[in-house]
Structure formats: C-alpha cells, structure tokens
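Structure ticket #2291
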Amino acid sequence: MSKSPAIDRGELESLYRTYGALVKRRARGILGDETEAQDAMQEVFVRVIGAMHEFRRQSQPSTWLYRITTNLCLNRLRDGRRRREHLQRLGQEAVATPPKALVSPELRATLQRVLITVPPELSEIAVYYYVDEMDQAEIAKLVGVARRTVGYRLDRFRAEAGKLLGITLPAAEDDSGVPKAGGSNG
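Resolution: structure written out below.
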C-alpha cells in the first residue's frame, strides 16, 4: 500500500477552520461536556496528522472526521468506565462530573452506560442510527459494511441494551421506515 504524502500545515489549518466546529459539536454530543469536547477536537486533529495517508478521498473530509470523532469519543467513554472500575476496586470513590448536555442527566448516563458496555462495533452503529438518525444504507456506506450487517448489529445492540436496562426495546426500522420483525441474522 502506498502512502499519500504527509499533510502540510496549510491543509491541516484548512481542515481545522472548515470542520473544527463540526468535530467539536459531535464530541460534545457524545461526551456531554464542553471541556472534554474541546480536548477531543484537538486530539482528532492530532490524529489527522498521523492518519492522512488513510484518507482515500472517496468521501468528504467531514465524513472521515466524523467517524474519527465518533470512535475517539466512544473510546473515551469506555476508558472512563475502566478508570472508575479500577478506582472502585482500590476502594476509592470515583468522582463523576455531571454532564452539561441538552438531554437530561439521567438519560445521558443511561446512554453512556449502554454504549460503554456493548462491543465497539455495536455502539458505533447505534450512535449513527439512534443519535444521528442516519438510515441503515448511510451507516453501511460510512462504516464499510453491508446494509444487512448494519441491521444485524442494530438487532444485537437492541438485545444487549434491553438486557442491560431490563426492558424490551422496539425493533430497528429498515430503510423503508418499517419496523423489522424479530431479530434476523442477516
């Protein structure tokens, strides 16, 4: 595989000016904290420097940055959970900062608990589907899997989240807007 030339300063500055607000808004939406979102935005652009050769230019830079941001933020949520679990094992109490988001703190805490518990491939697709309201075809294109795989992962997410929360979640809709009947393994 041949690598593209390293990103130059002007190109990085242009990406930052053009997409910095989008990246920060995305990070804030997942993390629920302005300071964390600012840190995540900076880390995304640091990663861009090292990963520019991965950008195939088959999609818009915003799509690529959106995916980097989503994955980074989901990893931060998981790392935060691991840190709290470790502190609790040591007998120390973890201090949680309440989220500063538009949704209720209870809902955000529940969502974060579910997202850090399920496998990464499920949480990524669930964020795109439930939070971003993307349809399955859009998610499939963004993630690089078949639409049927997206449907299967949404079914798995729904089942795992339902078990975790002790409730039955409604089936995901297919791209026509019709709820799917029971969990197919497509």
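Closing remark: The chain has a mean pLDDT of 74.
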